[in-house]
Amino acid sequence: MLTYFKDSYEELKNHVTLPTRAESSNLMVVVAVFSILFSLATWAVDSLFSELIQLYFNALIG
User: Fold this and answer.
1) CA distance 22 to 61
2) Per-run averaged pLDDT (10 residues), the chain, 62 residues
3) Closest Cα to residue 35, out of 23, 43, 45?
4) pTM score, two decimals?
5) What is the C-alpha end-to-end distance of the chain, expressed in Å?
6) For 18, phi and psi rounded to 5 degrees?
7) Which pLDDT does position 62 carry in this prediction?
8) Can you list the alpha helix ranges (DSSP code H) found in the chain?
9) Torsion of CA 35, 40, 43, 45, to 10 degrees
10) By three-state DSSP, how is residue 1 classified?
11) Could you give the CA distance from residue 9 to residue 18 in angstroms, rounded to a whole number?
């Protein structure tokens, strides 16, 4: 187990590079846009199913 942690630390120290500030900013914008689009799609599907369930139960009761 100790060897695993030593090797992981060495890999992180010697082979991992962080993206530049510009790359990070671009990626953040992409993630934000897709998050907003995904949340809007989820809201639309949820609203549609809610309406369908309401119509079904209103027809069943009424």
Assistant:
1) 58
2) 95 94 97 98 98 95 81
3) 43
4) 0.66
5) 66
6) -85, 150
7) 73
8) 2-15, 21-61
9) -110
10) coil
11) 15
Q: Please check whether residue 35 is in contact with residue 42, taking contact to mean a CB–CB distance below 8 angstroms.
A: no
37's tokens: 């689009």
Task: For tokens 């942690």, name the residue.
Answer: 5
Residue type (1 letter), 50 = S
| Contact indicator for 27, 19 with CB cutoff of 8 Å | yes
Question: What would the two tokens of residue 29 be?
Answer: 């914008």
Rg (CA), the chain: 24
User: Residue 42 burial by CB count (10 A; 0-12/13-18/19+): exposed, middle or buried?
Assistant: exposed
Q: Which residue's entry shows tokens 């998050």?
A: 35
| 18: region left, alpha or beta (phi > 0 left; psi from -120 to 50 alpha) | beta
